[in-house]
Specification:
Layout (H helix, E strand, L loop, with lengths): L1 E4 L8 H7 L3 H10 L1 E7 L2 E12 L2 E9 L8 H15 L4 E7 L3 H9 L3 E6 L2 H5 L5 E2 L2 E2 L3 E7 L1
Parallel strand pairs: 4-5
Antiparallel strand pairs: 1-2, 2-3, 3-4, 5-9, 6-9, 7-8
Length: about 150
Amino acid sequence: MNIRKLEQNEFAPMPLLLLADPSERLVRDYLQRGSCFVAEQENDIVGVYVLLPTRPDTAELVNVAVEEALHGQGIGKKLVTHAVETARKLGFSTIEVGTGSTGVSQLALYQKCGFRMTGIDRDFFVRHYEEEIYENGMRLYDMVRLSQDL
């Protein structure tokens, strides 16, 4: 598997990005402000993430997504690890990530990759999304924020 930065003349893999964030408006916004990286297997894009500068010395990892048929194969962990290393190489001192409070597997993935919980953004998904979002059979309200010093 190869992970690389998406070239400027390439289209972002929108169906894959929308797996992790159902708001096309928000996805397009952070694609313009950040850098998109894709994971490829045999010339097929199977995973994606966006690294977004947010504050001085801080980057946010947004929209980590893997093709659903390939879940559980370690691709997500490779993407997160790549994002951490990329942020470090770019000179950031902190990397942050936010995920839904009902996403148990996502929370475990980020913690396995060295992230620590820093807070909860209550009602984030109510404020920023027009439609209700359900994950693991529960309505999603809150975002859990995690970070890692680089």
